[in-house]
Every structure is written in structure tokens, then in C-alpha cells.
Amino acid sequence: MIKTSAEGGVGRLQLARPEKLNAMDAEFFAELPKAVERLEIDDHVRVIVLDAAGRSFSSGLDLVSMAPNLASSATVETITRLQSGFIKLALCKKPTIAAIHGHCIGGGLNLAAACDIRICSSDAVFSLPEVKLGMVADLGALELLGEVLPRAALAHIALAGTTFSASEANAFNLVTQVFDTVEDLREGTFALAAQIASNPRPAVLALKEHLLASRKELLPAKMAKVAEINAALIGSESFQNSLPTFLKARVHLHETSI
């Protein structure tokens, strides 16, 4: 599900389940914290790029495989385990760049939010649709995007749960650059990563440490709170009523292309 590699000071975390639009299953959640750790402790890696194989960054949680046990296993402890890799990425001591193309939905947007820099191609489409399922985005997007987006923009994204385009993401300040094509995105991403990697390492690490100062103190507590909220919401009648429609839409998404 996740491939890691390193070359020229640039580490790469690549989502590698393209046949499912890189939907996040149980294997993904188990792999993510380990994959981040491998690159974080590698002394040869100075910056980390997060990208994805196939035609989309990520369609989010793999509800098809995880839904049967979702309601019954949605305890605070279970949700906290799912959050662990996202927190690990968000608190990574090395600079991180998310290169986004195609779908960046739900868990995918939560994952991108954990990176320091987000850039995308013009075909990217974004959404936080959790509210439509009767739950709250609980993998960090609300907390992390709250650091960079105007409050009204974040409220718009989270409360409406609708899909928005790359140009809208740029207007929201969700991404810092939009490339015309996926090929241009990949070239631009690794050029940016190489530029960061070429800067004096002590200064880069010190800068990243400074940027993380308040996040280290606040993020774990905020994530624990939203885990409590979702443990209650996922067991509710509204969640159970919304799940079949949401599952049907997800199956259709995996069977079609942008």
C-alpha cells in the first residue's frame, strides 16, 4: 500500500494501491506510521515527498472493506490507532511535501493536511465528505488546516462536504501551487524537494522544529477530542442510515474515472 524510497536527499512516500484509487484499508493504517518513521530516521533523507501511483492521490477511507466492522469497532482506542500515522506525519521533524493529483477525498485530504506544503495538478478534486456520512473528519484535517486556512474557508469545506477544484483549493490557500499536468506536478515537486534538500541541514531542521513548536503541544489533545466525538457519532442512527448511500457512491467512484 505504501512504498518508500530515497535518492539525493529526497525521501519518497508513495501510495501504491492505484486499482482502488489508493483507498485506505487496515493495511494502510498499519503501514503509515512505520513508513514515516523509516524516512524520518534515515540520515540521508532531508525532505520527504508524499505522492501516489495511478490516477488519484487518494479516495480516502476504504469503506467497502472497513464498513462491516466500522460501527462495532469505533471506540476511542480504535480511532486513536487510525490517527497515529497521520500524527506521526504531522509531527515529522523533516520537511514534507504532498503532491496531489486526481481525487483527494476524506482521508486523502486529511493525509495531505499533515504535510508542510501541498501542491497539485489542475485535475485535482478535493472534499471532506465526512459530514455527509454523519461523522466528523477525525484524522487531522480540521486541526491542521485550521493553521493555514481562514476559518470561514475551513467551515465551508467541512460543513458543506462538497467537492471543490484545484483552482478553488488555491484560492482557499489549501495548496501553494497548481501545475497544468500530472507530469508537470511530479517534475515541480521533486525540483522543490531538491531545492529544500540543498539548503543547510541544521537551518532546515531548526526551522521545522520552530514551526512544530505549538503543534506538538496542541495536536495530540485535539485529535483525542475528535476521536471521542466520532466514537459517539459512528454509533448513531444517522450514521447507520447514511452508510448505504455513501458506500454506493464510493463503489461508483472506484469504477469510474475523472
Topology record:
Elements (H helix, E strand, L loop, with lengths): L1 E6 L2 E6 L10 H15 L6 E6 L10 H11 L2 H15 L5 E5 L2 E3 L1 H7 L3 E5 L3 E3 L2 H4 L7 H5 L5 H10 L3 E2 H6 L5 E3 L2 H17 L2 H33 L3 H19 L3
Parallel strand pairs: 2-3, 3-4, 4-6, 5-7, 6-9
Antiparallel strand pairs: 1-2, 7-8
List keywords for this structure.
single chain; 258 residues; alpha/beta; 2-enoyl-CoA Hydratase, Chain A, domain 1; 6-stranded mixed beta sheet; 3-stranded mixed beta sheet; 9 strands; 55% helix; 15% strand; globular
Write down the overall mean pLDDT: 93
Count of folded domains: 1
CATH fold-level name: 2-enoyl-CoA Hydratase, Chain A, domain 1
Mass-distribution shape:
globular
> Could you tell me the radius of gyration in angstroms?
17 Å
Strand order of the largest sheet: 1-2-3-4-6-9
Name the CATH superfamily classification.
2-enoyl-CoA Hydratase, Chain A, domain 1
Q: What kind of sheet is the major sheet?
A: 6 strands, mixed
- Given helix and strand content, the structural type is alpha/beta
User: How far is the first residue's CA from the last residue's CA?
Assistant: 22 Å
Can you count the helices? 11
Instruction: Report the count of strand segments.
Output: 9
Q: SSE order in H/E notation? A: EEHEHHEEHEEHHHEHEHHH
CATH class: Alpha Beta
Q: Assembly state here?
A: single chain
Low-confidence stretches: none
Q: What would you say the CATH architecture is?
A: Alpha-Beta Complex
Q: Care to give the gist of this entry?
A:
This protein has 258 residues and is an alpha/beta fold.
